[in-house]
Inverse folding.
């Protein structure tokens, strides 16, 4: 994929280690130096290449990271102003001391109601009924329980980015 056709994905979580996980799953660099380091790591640890990693992931996604909901909302605003919106956001439910996931989603959707959202959570502070009552929609919302599998993240990123792309294309046709 070319740089301009990469799906833009926003990762919102207060834990830097979660951002590292997303980078490993969706955003590994395809530079020669990075590939060389990956091979050295595999040889050193006697590991086979990860079966969960897609050969397409490196070139398919542009990852942008936020540690809090307020930062995420600002990034969504900027992405719309620049004409390069996000297709998918993976948003943690608990992000002390700031907004929780539901508040973040509500504010993000106020700017970009087309954004596909994946709620990432290990806890059930909110049940599905209360989330949908608060947000009033489910057509662009999925829950992913932590700890998640790499393949789940990759499948969601691919499927939801394509769903978003098709919705954008359909909207242009209607105009």
């Amino acid at each position: 994929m070319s740089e301009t056709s990469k799906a833009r994905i926003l990762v919102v979580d207060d834990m830097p280690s979660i951002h590292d996980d997303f980078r490993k799953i969706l955003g590994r660099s395809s530079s020669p130096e990075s590939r060389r380091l990956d091979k050295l790591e595999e040889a050193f640890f006697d590991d086979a290449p990860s079966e969960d990693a897609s050969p397409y992931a490196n070139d398919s996604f542009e990852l942008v990271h936020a540690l809090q909901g307020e930062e995420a909302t600002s990034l969504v605003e900027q992405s719309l102003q620049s004409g390069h919106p996000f297709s998918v956001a993976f948003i943690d439910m608990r992000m002390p001391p700031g907004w929780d996931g539901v508040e973040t989603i509500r504010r993000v959707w106020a700017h970009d109601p087309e954004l596909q959202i994946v709620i990432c959570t290990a806890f059930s502070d909110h049940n599905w009924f209360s989330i949908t009552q608060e947000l009033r929609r489910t057509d662009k919302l999925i829950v992913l329980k932590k700890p998640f599998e790499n393949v789940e993240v990759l499948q969601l990123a691919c499927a939801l980015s394509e769903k978003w792309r098709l919705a954008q294309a359909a909207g242009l046709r209607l105009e």
Notes: The domain at 3-174 is CATH 3.40.50.2300 (Rossmann fold).
